[in-house]
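User: Hey, quick favor. My workstation is busy. Could you predict this chain's structure for me?
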Amino acid sequence: MNALSVPDIPASDEDRWRIVLDKDRRFDGAFVFGVHSTGIYCRPSCPARAPLRDNVRFYLSPEEAEQAGLRACLRCRPGEVSREEEAVMRALALLKGAQDTMTLDQIARHVAYSPTHFQKVFRRIVGLSPAAYQRALRIERASAALDSGSDVTDAVYAAGYGSPSRFYEASAERFGMTPSAWKNGGRGATIRWAVVESSLGPMLVAATDKGVCRLSFNEGREALAARFPEADLIEGGDAFAGLLADVVAQVERPGEGRDIPLDVQGTAFQEAVWHQLRQIPPGETRSYAQIAAAIGKPRAVRAAGSANGANNVAVLIPCHRVVRADGSLGGYAYGEDIKRELLKRERSNGKTV
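Assistant: No problem, here it is.
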C-alpha cells in the first residue's frame, strides 16, 4: 500500500475499471484489482494484458485481496512500496527534520537520484516541487507557532527563517499581509470590498493590494468582517474599480482568460488542490478522485473534497468544476443552481483559459 496516501476510496467500480484499462500509475496505492480466474491481484498500472471485466473485483488494499484468497502479482508487486515512493518518503522525512533550507542537489543525493529526475518524481507524488514544499512547510510551522500564541520573532526563527525580514517577505508574497496581521485577524491589513449585483445574485468581492482574497455569493460586509475581524475594511474606491470590473466580467463571461491576481492562503495540500482546480479547462469537470490523483495523492479523495470546500475565492479558483464520480453535480457552497449555471456558461463559451 502507498504509505504516502490518505485512506479513502477514489471512485466507483466503473471508474476504477477505466483506470485499470488506462494503466494509470497515479492510482497505484489507491486500490488493487483481483483477477479471480487466475487468483492474483495487481496494481492499477500492471503492465500485463487487461483481464476480462467479469473476472475482476476491486479491493481497497493488498491485505483485503489476500483475505479473499488472492496472491500478489509477481510482475507489478502490488504489496510493495515502489522505489520512487520510498525515495520521496525518505526526502519528506529529511525535509521535515531539517533546520535549514536544502538544495535540490542535496535532497537528490540523499535519496540516490539525479536532481532532474527526482524533481519530476517528487512533483508527481507530492504535487509540489521540493523548493515549493519547503516554503510551504516553513510558513506552516510559523503559522502554527503564531496560532499557539508564540512571539512573532520566536515563531520566525523556529520555522527556519534566517531573519524576521525573510519571513515578512515570504508571508507578504504569499498572503498579502504581515505575520502580525495574520496572527491577529487581519490587524493592520487593508481590504477593499464591494457587493455587486450579478446575473447569479449579489456577489461579494474583496481584495488586498496583492489580489482577490474573497469572492462569494449572497454575502456582505458582516461575513467579510467575520473572516478578517481586525482588518481595515474599505468599501469600493477608484483603486479597486478596475479589479472589480475584471472579476465581474470573469463571472458573467467565464473562460475569457483574464489574469486576475489572487491573495489566498492554505496548507501545502490545499494549495496543490487549488492549483489543479485552475488547470481544469472551462466547461470541463473532474471528480474528487481525479483531483486527488492529479496531485499525486490518489487515496486522498476526502481530503481533496475538504480542500475544495475551503476555497475562499469562488469562480476564480473554479471549485464548481468538481463533480461526483457518477457525473452528478454534488454540493456547492452557494447552491447547485449557481454551480449548474456556471458550468452551462463555460460550456456555451467554448473557450480555454
